[in-house]
């Protein structure tokens, strides 16, 4: 177990190194003069020169790179031009909103995805199966922002049941948070739920064909025990591996969902940073979000090893 | 001699095609995607109004009558805009697929076949795949500047590593096959082995991947333009049309729903097509049992 943990952590190092290099390179790849592009069309040459100096863009590239890594090791991920504060501070403020939204969406994803998958597998080839798989197909085909817009039109504009935007922090009002985040979370969840339903179904069908399930049935165990205790616990193991992918998809999707519902999370922060040419924020934020994702994936690997002893001996 | 080699192969292709055409998912996917592709190809012939022509007299007309899909807040024909949007989606999707087919194969084959390149290429690959896809695409388009070409480039940068990984894993398995070892023993060069013995057999998973990739590309392009970092307005992309429709959800919901449905039909068609291709070409990955 410890060996596996060390191996996962070590293999993350080159990935993070290259990720940080790519983030570093982004701002420098802006065609023409990056400082002029960031400052905007209305900036005077003096302002551009000042900005170039502030961002260290007037130094030799190698020196810039060394400064960049020195900063990273000291927890300095740059300063947002738009917000006038450190990237790390801005991320610490906004990331919890995104994590909250993603967790909420994850709950929808698991309930809908695993539920549909199990029902479909148990009634293989019946109309229930086909309906569940059709639903999953719609889930993976509806763009989450389109679903979000449809939900706004229906539930906020026409019926007036839910607020169409505005964010209530969980710490202030948990019930308000549940309400104000319900539509974003659901619209964000459907894609992953569709994927998960398909994977759960095939994993469940695989397990249901195994000999030990036949044995359990033959010795007269009630159907419910066979399915939930014997089949599901094994069918869920491969599903854990896709949790990492689902988290990545949720974070990706959150970018759009947050912009659509004006939730003050990391996605909205980075979209606004991009639209306002706040490249230090884009660079630092991208690195932090990706680092977070790498950490989640390591955690998922560990969880998988805990659940499936075979992995540990590979 | 050449004919003797060719005929069984051709027979096999015909059999695969027959199986595909009998596959319900594939056929329904082909149908949905086909409609969109045909509409996109015929765009200049089936629209008569310039998609960007403003006509303030005619703004917010509901679908029906002279305006099949109605008009938007500037009185532009939504039919024209959605049809030209379809063409742009197809062009972007096809370009991303083409770039992936070329570079994904090259990188994947190089990494899978030449062990010395493997570690280096796959590390870069892993790093690119570690970024959340849309975020990386947004960052790249923002750096390069918003334009159709840059959207294609950004989406290719995001998706080529994923394609390369799939090609690589097929190549690694095939490289160890006896018939490949035999070709090595017979003195065939690397290029010949890759070109004639390995890549043709690595195609099935890649074709499946490319059909799903087409769907992702269309979806991501719409997402980028919806967020305002894709093709510059007033370019009629589905994402742009929907983004402009956001302000008029109450009075003109069709500005959002029509391009949204078009987008959904395209993506669903491609997903069904991909499912069908996977079932027939690559049964190991089969999900629908």
From TrEMBL, chain B:
It holds the Pfam family OppC_N. The chain crosses the membrane at residues 25-46, 88-114, 134-159, 206-232, 252-274. It comes from the Bacteria. Keywords: Cell membrane, Membrane, Transmembrane, Transmembrane helix, Transport. CDD domains: TM_PBP2 (cd06261). The keyword Membrane applies. It is found in: Cell membrane. It is a multi-pass membrane protein. Residues 86-274 form the ABC transmembrane type-1 domain. Signal peptide: none annotated. InterPro entries: BP-dependent_transpt_permease (IPR050366), MetI-like (IPR000515), MetI-like_sf (IPR035906), OppC_N (IPR025966). Belongs to the binding-protein-dependent transport system permease family. This is ABC transporter permease. It comes from Plastoroseomonas hellenica. The lineage of its organism: Bacteria, Pseudomonadati, Pseudomonadota, Alphaproteobacteria, Acetobacterales.
